[in-house]
Design brief:
single chain, alpha+beta, 7-stranded mixed β-sheet, about 30% helix
Amino acid sequence: MSTTSVISIRPLDPVEDAELIHPWVTHPKAAFWLMQDAKLQDVEREYMAIAAHPHHDAFIGLVDGEPAFLMERYDPARVELVGLYEAQPGDVGMHFLVAPSDTPVHGFTRRVITAVLRELFADPATARVVVEPDVRNKAVHALNEAVGFVPLREIRKPEKTALLSFCTRAQFETAVGASV
């Protein structure tokens, strides 16, 4: 992906896109996605549940028109983090997963997370983005820090111990050197 590549984001269609994302979420590099043993029907069912949820959305990220990443947006006061921290108005939860590649491109994942945050902050109601990656996922912690996230504390979720981290619009703009 060149620096002139066009990144766009579209809603995920659980039926149409399950076959596309199944190998992404079950790939060994997606171990922290916790879907390693998922069958195609499991992925379709999971994303149908997300599509039906009023406070959780999923999207496919495209680079020059080709599917390249998965993004989820959720209301952390109602999904994922209920009761685990004091949610504030304007908090938006986020997950993202880059499609596996046989030919990794240096800086690609950072461009993806930057595009994801730009998309989230494009909504003026978004005050800060909240993430809760597994504490063992050191690569994503470094990536999050590079785009402005600040860790608050570890939290215990049913499926993992997570590092609760936040990124305000100002932190993001300072980290990437541009306004959104």
